[in-house]
Description:
mainly alpha; Growth Hormone, Chain: A
Amino acid sequence: MRWIVLVLLFFGMMINFADKSIIGLAAVPIMEDFKLSYAEWGLVGSAYYWLYPVTGIFGAAWADKVGAKKVLGFLMLTWAVLQFGVIAITALPLLIVYRLLLGAFEGPFSPVAYSHADKWFPPKQRGFANSVVVSGATVGAMIVAPLLVAMITAWGWKYAFAALGLASLVWAVAFKFLTKESPVEAYEKAKKKAAPEKFKLKDLKYILTSRVALFTTLAYFSTYFIVVWLATWLPLYLVEVTGMSNGQMGFAVAAVGIASVVLYMGVSVLSDAVFKKTQDWKISRVYVTGGAMLIGSLSMLSILVFHNPIWVITAMCLAKGLTYAILPIGPTIMINEMPERRGLMTSILTSSGNLAGIVAPILTGFIVNLAATKIFGYNLSIAFMAVLVLIFSALFMIFVRPTEQVQSDESELSEQVGS
């Protein structure tokens, strides 16, 4: 059952990020249809994240109370409705409202998915499990880009969006009938579960004062600048700066996605292996992840020096793959600090990180709009992101010292199934 859950979470994350990234892949026809400037386009990209951090926290707290399965199914159904509703969009204000609502209902998915995967896997496999969930994001955002571009070209951008709505509907039905809420339910050995404890002020105080929570969240936040930039601006960058056609751009985005999946899954597997051997959270989760982020940020900075298109794609692969290491490992670190608040801890991480989603598209849009040349504007945005990751990954490695939980790999799952 755990593998069925993991596979469906992978596909759910794939749909989530396809919803996010298709707006970037359809940037040219949308901007032409509505006569948008770069600044207005940055506003469209930012609108997705205006409610995302808030709903992420409340949605995850709701999942802790009523169960992740119910919440994930409900979220998918709302995505389907919103994506079908794209057909009615006729002006910029409606486009912004659509992106605002889609972000609001997609905000809780990542933290709830991480928490749900964590529930099904023992500690020694959680880095891998979360990396599979995160890889769904890369597949949705980048690897399926040629397919999404083909759909946009053949059907028009509105019907391509509606096709993703259909995918959401299919997923909701599959998740309803093929999965269980937890190993307890799957093995049918538990009595009626006690209601979770109410949130206490001391929990909030811990979150606000913990160096682990603070610097893990800042590292996640810095990486999310790259997440959002790749989804919103990379297609335009490849077309306008490197001179690629739309078809070439689609395959280049897919290549970056494929390579990055291999890289950050490799980092996650390495982190799990080091943890299994040493049982040391600092070495296995912090140093391995932070070191990967440092290398990734330096790779992104190299684009400012070496402009060859082949190297640009190579550097993007390294930057995305290595900086993304925090996405699967970050939730593992946060949950380890407060296991009884899984949903809350992952939502604090992802929602705080997604604040970058509000800033990054608008900031990039204004930089490109105001710069003397497009190339100079794009380079400034790339330099800003790379330096941000460089600084916060270094702080992450210096200040984060996770709590060492004394518990065997299988004991938590054994307790859940009534062993």
